[in-house]
Amino acid sequence: MAVQKVFFHEGITPTDITLGEVQLNSELPVSAIEKLDISLKKLGFEIIDDRKSRIIERIKNLIITLVHHSDGPLNINISDYLSAEMNYEYNYLSNLFSEVEGNTIEKFFISQKIEKIKELLTYDELTLSQIAFKLGYSSVAYLSTQFKKATGLTPSYFKAIKANKRNRIEDL
């Protein structure tokens, strides 16, 4: 909505705005792009105009949407999913991502899953088994191992810390 406001304020009507991407009917003059860039930077956004950066952002947005905004179980092969969604060979996407980000797509995917686990543990609405199923882990043990490797904490200890912080806030 914030990005849409900036475009409308500048008198530009996008055909579509999604996470990390704005579609326009025609090319903008350099002066309009510069004005948009200044306005967007004030909001913490930036215009990405080179092809490689756009591909990387699209990969990230697809993974974030998949992990954080899908309702069903996350039993998906990430390489097949990205290849199908982006119409590129996965090897090309993987090499490009690693070259630009200094990290692999798989590690980015795992980090997003870890963030989702933290969120779900904080909400305390699902059991660890349900979270493992929802995020496509083969077992609770595997989820716990990956979580501990990423955070240094077991899921149950993380959950206990969050519960303790919530209790203290409620006592205020």
UniProtKB/TrEMBL annotation:
Protein name as annotated: HTH araC/xylS-type domain-containing protein
Keywords: DNA-binding, Transcription, Transcription regulation
Residues annotated as domain HTH araC/xylS-type: 57-161
Pfam families per record: HTH_18
Domain of life of the organism encoding this protein: Bacteria
PROSITE patterns named among the record's database cross-references: HTH_ARAC_FAMILY_1, HTH_ARAC_FAMILY_2
